């Protein structure tokens, strides 16, 4: 029996790998792959434990590389079955997001495999498993910092591959590193080229919608809005209290939108969004305008839940008719910074995957979470975005439902000039949508978008002051003016707050949404078409126009804006970039730096050329011209010897250039305008002789 076991062992035993260079390179690649997964908060602790275990396992495998290790192989096989069992248990518990159990499975498989790496072929399997881990990390990551790990991994993998193909005895460590680095650079360049050339679609095609693990302890729905930046005080009226601006949060995610506030929101990253099409991420809507702000006249919230894990199908009220034309939009939101208990989504949502298992929906199609959105939370929404046909939008007036008319046409006692302006802008225009477009075009010209508009005087109407006095304001003032003018023209409208699409991150495929992307726009109602999104603020592109452009065009524009925004944010973090706290100051600083750098480079180039001298440059140009014909000066030849060795047609003029050079270089004779002119003339004659005589060295031929 022992003889049979020995014969089987001899038959399947492979030569042990003794090269420490190969093992070190493979171990480095594996550790980088584990780090690529460990940067995610969900796997940090497990990745650190796995990294220590892999280091120990590689050491054990090297020490026992010549032993059969049957008992170790059996133990590894049993542990693999145990790990697989845990994977399927976790998968059944959370079928909507299989990534977390999958990553843990790959980590433990890498640890177990590292205990049995006797031969070079086993190390290749370990390297292939590291590639899989890197792929998993790439799928899971939402940050561009993943590229910082991709470079050392490619370098370590390249060195390992070169070392595996090298001679086992005569290859030096330095030569392996040099060849591996060249291979890695070539792979990275090819990958970057492929990344730039491969076209990108309109987004991802989701099969399973990502969502955080269900929060079973959440049982009660809070109907009020919980905004950490603007906490609600039930005992005070926000319109009577003095306005206090908070740059770390948006006032539009509260029960009252105060149009008196002035200030600039910071650039803190709040959301990352994967979506099949760009859009505005709607939060709340407001129907009651009071002259200085917007409120919700109806605070009722209906609760919806589901027993099907995290899938919820909310029903919207009678004020939200189904659009005549629509397209599906699938979005996944990754919360990066604490947010209010507002569930952001593209209008009109009809399927929500949320970790609490229950949500609330108000009378204006705004969705509420039972708790604030915490960092790390993931939820998905499927929406049917209204896309009415142009023929439908061009139709005339229809019957507006009474409940919509009663709620979305009410106005306070506004000034007569506001009503007259609305009448003048819509005179002779047929459909409500075309009337809204006429008002929107009016606001696009003659009005300035700014976040530091003059303060609103006491007892002044915000829209009246904006339209006829200041002509400048924030997006809230532009949207308020459009909504009020629409209502004055008899068109139902409401103010909506949320986030713009954000900047498209070309490396991760996510939309990076920041605090400064908080925005206000308008939804107007047209019979037969439903609620239609209207953008009033200059400089903001409506999502409908973005979708209408070719895919590559809006992706390229978003990618360019992301790169520019990232560059400006980096400059703003510098001490010199904080002159005024705005992007304009940073742009001035960047432009000045570039101009100074260009002028300094030109001056340095001029000084270098001037210090070298006309005569010396002329001799160098002569050597270059002759070298192209095959006449190269050897290091042992003096300038005179080289000139004497040249063919007869070029020898006299070459000798003249050489004498000028030797006098300048070795005779230390200063040059003047005459010697410089003689050097230039001789160089021109040399080039003319070479071109006419067509001389060429036989050795070069």
Describe the structure.
The chain is of the alpha+beta class and about 700 residues long. It folds into four domains: about 10-195, no CATH class; about 250-570, C8orf32 fold, CATH 3.10.620.30; about 575-610; about 615-695, no CATH class. About 45% of the residues lie in helices and about 15% in strands. The chain is built from 21 helices and 20 strands. A seven-stranded antiparallel beta sheet has the order 7-10-13-8-2-18-17. Helix 20 (about 650-665) packs antiparallel against helix 21 (about 675-695). The longest helix has 30 residues, at about 585-610. The chain is flat and about 105 Å long.
Strand content: 5-15%
CATH class of the largest domain: Alpha Beta
Strand order of the largest sheet: 7-10-13-8-2-18-17
Determine the number of helices (DSSP H or I, runs of at least 4 residues). Answer: 21
> What is the typical, i.e. mean, pLDDT?
80
- Biggest beta sheet summary: 7 strands, antiparallel
Overall, the morphology is: flat
Outline the fold blueprint.
Elements: H1 2-12, H2 20-38, H3 44-63, H4 70-93, H5 99-113, H6 120-140, H7 146-165, H8 173-197, E1 256-258, E2 269-275, E3 281-286, E4 288-289, E5 293-295, E6 301-305, E7 311-312, E8 326-335, E9 342-343, E10 349-353, E11 358-362, E12 367-368, E13 378-386, H9 390-393, H10 402-408, H11 416-426, H12 432-444, E14 448-449, H13 462-470, E15 472-473, H14 475-488, E16 493-499, E17 503-504, E18 511-514, E19 518-526, E20 530-534, H15 543-548, H16 551-573, H17 583-612, H18 614-628, H19 639-644, H20 651-665, H21 673-693
Parallel strand pairs: 14-15
Antiparallel strand pairs: 1-5, 2-8, 2-18, 3-16, 4-5, 6-11, 7-10, 8-13, 9-12, 10-13, 11-12, 16-19, 17-18, 19-20
Helix pairs in contact: 2-3, 2-6, 2-7, 3-5, 4-5, 5-6, 6-7, 7-8, 11-14, 12-14, 13-14, 16-17, 18-20, 18-21, 20-21
